[in-house]
Design goal:
This protein has 336 residues and is of the alpha+beta class. It contains four helices and 14 strands. The protein folds into two domains: 19-125 and 312-333, no CATH class; 127-310, Sandwich (Jelly Rolls), CATH 2.60.120. Strands 1, 2, 4, 9, 10, 12, 13 and 14 form an eight-stranded antiparallel beta sheet that branches. A six-stranded antiparallel beta sheet has the order 3-11-5-6-7-8, with no helix packed on it.
């Protein structure tokens, strides 16, 4: 990808869009967040198990919160760093899940009536692929082509969290288009600058097309999810690929994802798919330089690249008390 000299990368300290795409989130934030979640859950729960029905309710609460917190932890670790490999992600999840389970177990043990445990099963988890561009640049491929394919039809892709983190100052007033096509229906989303804002249009063969929805920047950033059709600031909504209110209007996978006129959009992006890293057929290179087949295949920090993510986490929950001995495996969808 070639970065235009007339549009230098934005280095503003006010970039609030870093929430999703930055590689600076540390493990410490995960642990702090989980401690807060643990305290919140335990304060709200009544740990009495004097009756089996009441104990059953407590198991349900424990199991629900365990799955919810697992999703939060895995999601953060999937997006923690650009160059993560599958073994690194799996190891990070394993360690943090053990820390979380130990802290939760110690808190329950103080009541003297319950033993709880949550364990992550790496080999039984489903893996996917993350395509990411972590630095500001044009939305082009690593060769600078403005018209390119992110997911090939052979990838049988089911995408989630397609986040565009746009620099509204450098994005052009001509549209960059992202098209999702499953062979029967299409969703084409056009993005361009209008004045100081970003205008989003959506052409949907499934119905619900919209034109020129205005998304105002925070500083110079506009952060939108093409899948759900919303801005992270909550100031704009458009009809994206998914439709939770009318699921029949959601574009059904698998589909290809292509970019047209990518040199009109300037910023960062990230999208995940259920296609595995090893079977991914696109020409996008690995983020980790050690995984490149040759030195020439190593990706530039301004180029899009791919890395592994956990698409569905397999965990085992255990809850023991005088009245109940509960054990269950769960497949937790990280990107529902």
């Amino acid at each position: 990808m070639v970065t235009s000299g007339s549009a230098p990368a934005d280095e503003s300290e006010t970039d609030r869009g870093q929430l999703v795409l930055t590689a600076a989130i540390g493990i410490g934030l995960v642990i702090v967040g989980l401690v807060i979640v643990i305290n919140t859950v335990l304060v709200s729960e009544n740990l009495s198990t004097s009756e089996s029905l009441e104990g059953s309710d407590e198991v349900t609460k424990f199991s629900t919160s365990a799955r919810r917190n697992t999703r939060t932890l895995v999601l953060r670790l999937n997006h923690w760093q650009r160059n993560q490999t599958a073994p690194q992600i799996g190891g990070n999840i394993q360690r943090n899940m053990s820390n979380y389970s130990r802290a939760l177990g110690e808190t329950y043990a103080e009541t003297g009536i319950s033993i709880v445990n949550i364990s992550y099963n790496n080999d039984s988890s489903k893996w996917g692929t993350r395509i990411v561009q972590t630095n500001d640049s044009w939305i082009t491929d690593d060769g600078g082509s403005a018209d390119w394919t992110i997911f090939e039809p052979a990838d049988t892709a089911n995408a989630r969290r397609f986040i565009l983190n746009l620099n509204s100052s450098h994005t052009k007033d001509e549209q960059v288009n992202v098209t999702f096509d499953n062979g029967t229906d299409t969703v084409e989303i056009g993005i361009q600058r209008k004045s100081e804002s970003i205008a989003v249009s959506s052409e949907r063969s499934l119905g619900g097309s919209v034109q020129d929805v205005t998304c105002d920047p925070s500083g110079t950033r506009v952060l939108i999810d093409l899948m759900t059709g919303e801005a992270f600031t909550g100031d704009c909504e458009f009809n994206g690929v998914l439709n939770e209110t009318h699921p029949e209007r959601s574009l059904q996978p698998p589909y290809s994802v292509t970019v047209t006129d990518g040199d009109n959009g300037y910023g960062k992006f990230s999208v995940v798919t259920n296609s595995s890293f090893d079977t991914f057929s696109g020409r996008i290179g690995p983020c980790d330089p050690d995984q490149a087949a040759t030195p020439s295949d190593r990706t530039n920090p301004h180029d899009p690249c791919r890395s592994s993510i956990v698409w569905r986490a397999n965990v085992t929950t255990t809850y023991q008390s005088p009245a109940i001995d509960y054990w269950q495996q769960h497949n937790v969808s990280v990107y529902p």
